[in-house]
Amino acid sequence: MAEICYFGGLVHYKSPSLPLSLHSLFRSKKPHYYNSTSLMAECLSSSTVEPPSLLVFSGGTGFNGVVEELKKLTTRVAHVLPVSDDGGSTAEIVRVLGGPAVGDIRSRCLRLSDESTSEALAVRRLLGHRLPIDAHQAKKDWYDIVEGNHSLWDGVSRPYSETIRAFLIYFQNEIHRRPNERFCFSNGSIGNFFFAGARIFFQSLDAAIFLFSRVSEIPCDSLVLPVISTNDRLTLGCELQDGTIIRGQNEISHPTTGTTQTVDKRHCSTSALPSKIKRVFYMSSEGNNLLHEVFPPVNPTVLEQLRSVDCIVYAMGSLFTSICPSLVLLGVGEIISSRSCRKVLLLNGSQDRETSRFTASCFVTAIADALNRTHGDTNIRLKNPPGYYINTLLVPKDGEIAVDLKQLSEQGIYDVRVVESVGDPKHGILFNPSSLINTLAGLVE
């Protein structure tokens, strides 16, 4: 158990050694990595007919609503997510402790987690919990959770609770090691704190994802992949058509006034961008020239999966801050353009700040430009037509985005299908999950 000491009114937690339940998993001094190919083969060795395999480019919100339905079709899915989000509780973690943003990854892991037992639901409830907005109450609740006294631990067995608490305590210790930074727990995500503690402990984002996947019992053939496997902070930037440079994902998609209130990207009250987005790119997070463009390498496992999956999906969501950050990296466009599989774009049902006045063909152009790196360094530019990257477009019925069929056909996209939708008072028109997955099933089976 953790040892609790008091210094000048501050609570200090002495990190326990890893619980016995983890010794077999982490007995090596090096982080425990897993090979996605061998793991998938092991999971499917007893099956005679393999379900289809997909790779989905998405953010942490837009595609979450259909993940449960997708599991009915297949769990052989590689979920590729960006690690450049600098909003919400992720921003506070990155500000104080550095490292990549884990919010989108945590969100997808929770959606994929097991719900078949009462304990699985208890673990999911704990890791999905957000602290109150009020800073004082948030800090009080956080200490109750770390000390194991909060009701969120009800239903979580000792092996699980020891494992999770070990990394929450480690996260707390890392905060205390930075006395000059005051950490704000308002609206903080317990899952994000657990993720950050594991990442810092192992000095590996991959190892943290592996641990989170095992704790939340994600299907063994489902992969949650950061598009960039790094232990460093990443900053997203964008260039507008008028030459304006905007630094930071939050500033691009939904700038806030510094409050801790949650933001709905599609219906936020922020002003429109002064000009359309021309491109997104990664910016230096260190040094004096913070506008300097950098070129981080893509996660090799993403490229490995792109070469072998049956279908590539560009999910609905924030086009320039959730999808394109995964597409602009070297190697991604090269592999996708070489594949002859289904390449499906799921069109948004509503406009947002990033895509105001966009038609369907504008979405296609943005994705093709990102994969071609059209507006970047001429030495690494590709010149593939849009049809090399997208060959099928799925459109939610009654959506706000105009479907300009003539322009789409000129881009080489002839397979356009309308899918049943549902209206959501907060998010507008969304794909009906079962209809969407049924349509995808018809494409890949």
From TrEMBL:
InterPro entries according to UniProt: CofD, CofD-like_dom_sf
Top-level taxon of the source organism: Eukaryota
Annotated GO biological process: embryo development ending in seed dormancy; pollen tube development
GO molecular function, one term: LPPG:FO 2-phospho-L-lactate transferase activity
Name of the protein in question: At2g34090
Organism this protein belongs to: Arabidopsis thaliana (Mouse-ear cress)
